[in-house]
Amino acid sequence: MNCPQIEKLLHAHHDRELDAAHTLQVDDHLSDCQRCFDLTRNLSTLRSALQNDALRLSVPAGLRQSILACIGQTAQSEHDATISPKRSWNWNWSVAAVLLAAAVLAFQFRHSPSDDRLLVELTESHIRSLMASHLTDVASTDQHTVKPWFDGKLDFAPPVIDLYLAGFPLLGGRLDYIAGRPVAALVYSGQKHPINLFIWPAESSAVCSPHATQRNDYGIVQWSDGRMNLVAVSDLGEAELHEFAVSFCHGARQPFPP
What we know:
By secondary structure, the protein is an alpha+beta fold. 48% of the residues lie in helices and 21% in strands. The protein contains eight helices and seven strands. It has a seven-stranded antiparallel sheet, with helices on both faces. α2 packs across α3 and α4 packs antiparallel against α5. The protein starts with a helix and ends in a 6-residue tail after the last helix.
């Protein structure tokens, strides 16, 4: 497929709406065409920008109370009224008020936009590293080669652990850029599935044990040892990815709650 044909499929590819055959064709093209790859990266940047908090509508603090009070008044009016066309209007208003109240409650309990943005960036960085065939800046199975490679490139020293005996051999590492700052990305393999482990300094000293989530068919396990934030991303199964995180914690002698 040529560039004009690929460009027509980029949006669907970015939203994971293509079938397997077309996905492979686009992936193959992106691995060789810098121009189309840059277009895909621009789509990722646009998606992240559209998730800016400034673009979200802020709900007034008293709206929920006002809706609930209105529902109560409507219910009392229906109880007191006789059967009439007016009662039908009140019933319709009551249904609308309940639906609006439910929508407000759903809005209040949505995921944090900043957390969602971070998961999007991590997942897209993992996908880009696979599409561009650029998993590593330094390719080595030796932790004593990978760890010093980061010296002078970051303002922190990421832990690099050899997990070969645990079934997750080290493949290398690279620099990446997540949440507005440079981070370390260690690359491991689990059952021939690449695992990107992103590491950057924690803002809090709180220790958080590994917990899993899912994003666009990719597994994500996050944890913190009170010094570093660590996030593993892969298409490996959830149980295996969690096992990787626990193995890394044990290898690094990182404390985490049981």
